[in-house]
Fold this sequence. Notes:
AKR, Aryl-alcohol dehydrogenase-like predicted oxidoreductase, single chain, NADP, K_chnl_volt-dep_bsu_KCNAB-rel, 8-stranded parallel beta barrel, two-stranded antiparallel sheet, TIM Barrel
Amino acid sequence: MVNYRYLGNSGLKISEITYGNWLTHGSQVENDVATACVRAALDAGITTFDTADVYANTVAEQVLGDALQGERRESLEIFTKVYWPTGPKGPNDVGLSRKHIMESINGSLSRLGTDYVDLYQAHRYDVETPLEETMQAFADVVRQGKALYIGVSEWSADQIRAGAALAKELGFQLISSQPQYSMLWRVIEDEVVPASKEVGVSQIVWSPMAQGVLSGKYLPGQAAPAGSRATDQKGGAQTISRFMSDETLTAVQNLKPVADELGLSMAQLAVAWVLQNDNVAAALVGASRPEQVAENVKASGVTIPAELLKQIDEALAGVVERDPAKTFEGMPKKRPA
């Protein structure tokens, strides 16, 4: 069964393996399979579920809401996000303006079939809206009881500090950051994590398996397995491409002895590794089959000894991305159309 951790400087506990439905519900898997995966997550003790209005253009929220119907709402933590274009994608169907936030939270609640979400997250930083406007809108969402806490995703250290300061002034808590983080992608370690610790924010990390590369199923010099993310032309192949060099794939194979010593699969090792960071509250994992959920949960509660953490670093030397500027590079420079 899964363990639980506090999220940021709050009293909210979440499952350290959190079920996310990016790239799966409403797109890659049928609804009955999605429901089976959610049931498997609940059976494994996962109580925390993360989605976003943009996933499958709002369909993922609907699928998750349907799958959770009948569950005791108070026993769940449901997270969603706002920023990216949704619906007909008009000029105000995007960003973190007051208008878009207020309309988006109502749409998300309707699709999820709930009166409130436990965490409402700014899916990116909006360079075209004053931060004061965004945080005031979030404050009002909290006061209206539509969200209990507020978080962000892929914000820089300075943006997190500024957002947390405004939140404090407005009387609510900014408690989480949702960045990409894995053995191969460590860009948050030098700036985002220290800033987060300063202001009482913890990380809910996505892609702990580096889009599946750290599972070891992709081999250097060989074609990607049929049906894998690297062959998915709907978006999966693009997101995984940065990790698909032969140099990286060769280095990843050197992790197998570490996984074997711990009695873990390579995928479980990848999830356990991100959870060794004391600023990480949860690792987001998705699934296209129910059995994947049960396997992922085995990473919960694992302690990786210092000598094996050093062995991991040595195995991946030369292929790890650590540059904090990569957070800025991935930020939208203007609102997407």
